[in-house]
Known about the structure:
The chain is α/β, with parallel strands linked by helices. It is built from eleven helices and 15 strands.
Amino acid sequence: MKNEKTQSTIGLDIGTSRIVAASRVNQDEKVQAQLNAFVAIPYSRLTENSLKREHVPHAVSDGQLVIFGDESARMADLLGREIRRPMTRGILNAGEPESLPQIKEIIATVLGDSDKGSKICFSVPAPPLGVEDNLTYHDATIRQILDQLGYKDVRSINEGVAVIYSELEDSNYTGIGISCGGGLCNVALSYMSVPVLSFSLAKGGDFIDSSAASVTGELINRVRLTKEEGFHFNGHFTDKIQQAIAVYYDDMIQSIVQGLKDAFASSRNVPKFGRPVPLVLSGGGVLPEGFREKFEKAMATVSLPVPVSEVRMAGNPLETTARGALVAALSE
Ligand SMILES: Nc1ncnc2c1ncn2[C@@H]1O[C@H](COP(=O)(O)OP(=O)(O)O)[C@@H](O)[C@H]1O
Ligand SMILES: [Mg+2]
């Protein structure tokens, strides 16, 4: 029934690596994700027809076939090419307006045929520590894209806060939410759902991949695959790539913990919480086995004005931000 379709509400995670939509129509929830990437290959009618038959998102542009999302990685790998990304370090690059049509296609793909009357809440990163606001262009451009796609009821939410909305209902949305993505790590603290502080760090999975690649002389993509397919934290590494990945993972974790310390130190309004709060970890970067324990150990070395009661993993780290944005959209 047409009537039922208009009940749709959507949480949208606009990440450097992946775009994820969590939608709810009546009581049914579903999640759609695509790589936030594209690749251009030479045009051929045959290839275009194959892409159509397989329902692969694509467009014809300047005599080339542009392939979007998950399939772009497979195709790029096959042809020995690099994928291209509309975003770096968490936000759209104002110097690269030519990738806007690409991210628009990827967003349209994850939104599918959802009703244009849907309420949408999308995630935006926090500015880095010490930076006032570098997000105006990014926020406004994503709104513009959603508007062009026909969605008129749109708002945004801080990514770390979305993590808290998704995972910390049991502590009444009081605690620390962290998302470790490709471009950035995002951190937020809230008290009874009210954001108290947030910041981002330009050290995420991409930083680990490129740093480990440069010291080992390996290709970035090779390092990323090694990291995603078999990396875990345990004592000693015989493999040089694994060892380098561990070094930069340590660096990332130390930077987050130090960032928390600095954020509290420079914040004028840290309330007396009265009790320790939970900290929740999400994002693709937290997936390696042993990450939680490693993070917990690093947290034990600092003392924060708001003590942490436990370090826990999000239920589904790759969907946390989108699900939290959905909670925000539903609560409007
Ligand atoms: N199984 C895994 N183990 C380790 N890292 C992973 C794994 N899966 C994804 N990642 C890394 O997580 C990052 C992407 O996380 P994601 O939350 O999807 O990012 P973003 O918020 O940037 O879109 C990438 O750096 C990717 O290499
Ligand atoms: Mg993310």
